[in-house]
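F.,

This is the one I mentioned.
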């Protein structure tokens, strides 16, 4: 974890300092080696958050986009289990940054537990995911949405298939992978997946920074203009809350 409590204060790992887990209160020791990023580890194997996954540079990079006091927020379930949300915004939205594989059961449990949450998923864990996603886009028609997007089957690529069946927004982060498109920038993209009935999914590229800004200050998540009108026009997508509210009422035209 990035933070431990040292005499009651949340601190990052520092050599020679002892802390306690903000989740379960057990002792933590700082790990400040050269190989992995500096972090706190439980001194002994304890039952802390069973949903916790080892932090990567990628996790840390995302967390650091948000205020320190929003990061690693403890929640206690009715059965006493401790869960630590990666980020919880001032308005109460939880952001989970997911690198490892996750079972559908655990995913559903986390969605039910946190309620209002989104998934930011690392798309680069498995080598085949990016090429198969890019290939799926190549053959997919445009979706009838305000911003430029594609209509895919939820079985068109493995990573889309693995994330189907949930009820919360999923953003796929392929880093600065090149999508070889004349109208997509080469950096700063993230793919918003919206699963819709009959096994389909709408993939919308949006500005990564606009997703961060949305959770920081409520500004709309921004996608890209449709091919007609001209691609230079950017269009605003509805905010996450508005999106959730309208999700069920929306009618898709295909
Ligand atoms: Zn703990």
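My design for it:
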């Amino acid at each position: 974890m990035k933070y431990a409590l040292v005499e009651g204060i949340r601190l990052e790992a520092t050599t020679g300092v002892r802390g306690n887990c903000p989740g379960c209160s057990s002792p933590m020791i700082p790990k400040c080696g050269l190989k992995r990023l500096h972090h706190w580890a439980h001194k002994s194997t304890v039952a802390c958050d069973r949903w916790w996954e080892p932090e990567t540079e990628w996790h840390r990079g995302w967390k650091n986009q948000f205020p320190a006091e929003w990061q690693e927020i403890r929640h206690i379930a009715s059965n006493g289990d401790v869960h630590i949300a990666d980020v919880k915004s001032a308005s109460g939205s939880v952001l989970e940054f997911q690198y490892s594989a996750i079972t559908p059961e655990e995913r559903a449990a986390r969605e039910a537990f946190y309620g209002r949450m989104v998934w930011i998923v690392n798309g680069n864990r498995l080598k085949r995911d990016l090429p198969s996603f890019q290939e799926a886009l190549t053959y997919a028609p445009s979706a009838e949405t305000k911003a430029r997007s594609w209509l895919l089957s939820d079985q068109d690529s493995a990573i889309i298939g693995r994330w189907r069946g949930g009820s919360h927004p999923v953003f796929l982060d392929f880093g600065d992978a090149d999508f070889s498109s004349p109208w997509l920038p080469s950096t700063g993209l993230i793919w918003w997946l919206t699963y819709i009935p009959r096994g389909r999914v709408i993939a919308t590229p949006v500005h990564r920074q606009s997703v961060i800004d949305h959770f920081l200050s409520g500004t709309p998540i921004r996608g890209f203009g449709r091919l007609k009108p001209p691609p230079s026009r950017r269009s605003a997508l509805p905010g996450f809350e508005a999106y959730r509210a309208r999700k069920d009422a929306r009618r898709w035209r295909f």
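The radius of gyration is 19 Å.

Talk soon.
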